[in-house]
């Protein structure tokens, strides 16, 4: 009887700890290569979303590559990430925020100067594929409007799926294994030497809109759904507007950032007047 009373007493002591314990949530951040696990912009976004979510969750962080990130988001683990491209397929697998957490200047087409010589400022990827040009892509990411084209021309596509896929993409072009790649300027500069980058030229892509959106995304779990709700609410605050304005102006400059902020206001009702 004394033993039962002791167990009951201990139970009453620890019960509040279980009641007040917050559910765990892992916030995934991109590691673009094994030795590059953090970028300043990523740190700003992580700090913001960690602050928004830590009142309801015990937040853990994990730096991972893009392929593993997609795998985790597709699982039953309570994980979220930010600034990820939304596609129809991914919408079936993840929860997404209503408004984008950032906008990017679109990817461009890159190739050696002699390869792109004579091409107009804006080029059609579909026409280049029809002309038997070869492309390098990262398997785990989405090229949105171009995904269907790449699936139709698989014999001309070198698809990279590895831990350092973005770094290998640049090297694939630098060693002339393919004619062209489609990538962000920042990524190309990061993974190629200044000498290699200087040998390249780039073009805008006709099939793409001016900007590309990145969203907050979570696994389809109870924790993921709750996290998305918190983010959706915070996106409608003046603090979020101020953050977005600051980060976009610092990253892209006044002309581009101003156009981005107009889109936030007109399409997503995120403005200082809310």
Explain briefly what this protein structure is:
This protein is α/β, with parallel strands linked by helices and 274 residues long. Helix content is 47%, strand content 22%.
Structure notes:
The strands form 2 sheets. Strands 1, 2, 3, 4, 5 and 12 form a 6-stranded mixed beta sheet that branches. Helix 8 (165-174) packs across helix 9 (185-191) and helix 12 runs antiparallel to helix 13. Mean pLDDT is 87; it is low at 5-19. The protein is 47% helix and 22% strand. The chain is α/β, with parallel strands linked by helices. The radius of gyration is 22 Å and the shape is globular. It is built from 13 helices and 12 strands.
Q: Structural class, please?
A: alpha/beta
What string, H for helix and E for strand, traces the elements in order?
A: HEHEHEHEEEHEHEHEHEHHEEHHH
Number of helices: 13
Q: How helical, in percent, are the residues?
A: 40-55%
Overall spatial form: globular
Q: Compute the average pLDDT.
A: 87
List the helices and strands and how they pair.
Layout: H1 2-20, E1 24-30, H2 40-53, E2 58-64, H3 66-73, E3 79-84, H4 88-93, E4 94-96, E5 102-105, E6 108-112, H5 113-116, E7 122-123, H6 125-130, E8 135-138, H7 147-152, E9 157-160, H8 165-174, E10 180-183, H9 185-191, H10 194-198, E11 200-205, E12 211-219, H11 222-235, H12 238-252, H13 254-268
Parallel strand pairs: 1-2, 1-3, 7-11, 8-9, 8-10
Antiparallel strand pairs: 3-12, 4-12, 5-12, 6-10, 6-11
